[in-house]
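Recall that a protein's primary structure is simply its ordered list of amino acids. Everything else, from secondary elements to tertiary packing, is in principle encoded there. The following example makes that idea concrete.
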Amino acid sequence: MDAFPPPGFIRAESALEGIEVYVPAPPEAAERKDVVDFKCPNCGATTAYSVADGGLRCEHCGYYAAPDQDVVGKRASEFEFKVETLEKAARGWGKARKELQCQNCGACTSLPDVALTYTCPFCGSNKVIQREASQDVLRPRFLVPFKVTPETCCPLAREWMGSSWMVSSDLRRLASIANFTAIYLPFWTFDAATDATWRAQVGHIETERYYSDGEWKTRTKTVWKWESGRVHRFFDDLLVPGTARLSKVLLTQIRDYDLSQLVAYDPAYLAGYHAQAYDVLLEPAWTEARQEMRECTRDACRGQASTSQIRNFSMNLDFGDESWRYILLPVYLAVYNYQDKVYQVMVNGETGTVAGQRPVDWTKVALVLAAVVAPGVLLSLLGLFTFFTGIGIAIGIVGFILLILGLIVDFVIFQKAQGMDDI
């Protein structure tokens, strides 16, 4: 006798008492059957992934169970750009989770089902709404586990805060009290081969002799010659952030992940951790990756030219062997308030690389800028007052040179400070 109900059917509500009705299970129901809870088998308390031990550890009784850490690295499956690939991909987190939607910055963060936090990790706002996490987004296939422990984040951030003289001295204290949130952020990785042919006029400096006013003279001129070439490049695991809630500049600065440490996604890795689903879709992420590949290939083409003087440059570019992955990467994220403004600091959860926003102390920078040009200004004035003496002219010339050098140094310092302040 065949089993009833048949596989793939679920019980539905019946309008008649005593009559059972079964209907085909919707696709998402099949995807959610592996939702699991992480309860300690020893005491029943909720467990969380332990960075130091690399497994599930109960904070109540000390029970420990190591997850299956099969490092797949570069062997991690890659996918073609096909509609069937997305249709067949697993959805959801694979376990019950809550979602925190911030009413201030709009970020949505996935939380453990038992989490009690009511603070947005992206902006620090408490204006949030909690709800059941959506199971409709693509499920990540791989991730890099946390390697850096939470205890090391504050020392790393404090050292980073104090590494620039341009920031206020009290920022180190803020780094010490910053509350870092361990969160898995979404990233897309892209592989592709580029094949480009190029053509351009390349300038060559040539010297020629000519006769004028009764004597031979020399002059230089630029001779433009057509050159062409071909470039073939392969891009492996180009990372593009799947979140629009963080600065791309900062995410690029902590992008030194070792993707040879990728492991297959397991909900156990997210036990006790925040995570964010992608809000940058695959297609715009691939467009961004293609643009970066195009620029890198263009630079390689221009690098083949025999000189750096190039005009009328053109390039024909083809892409091939295109594939992608959706992965999670570990980040510690903290926000701090300084002079009524919110700033972010990130720590790479695998390597410990720090990036963030450091408000510039413009009073301190202004004093340094003034000190740099002061010797040149003083010597120039002294030379001006003693201009009619022999030594006065020499002093004035030295002062003018020091002033020019000081202005150049000031420009470099100002640009660096402006860059820090604009992140």
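The two ends are 68 Å apart (CA to CA). The longest helix spans residues 390-422.
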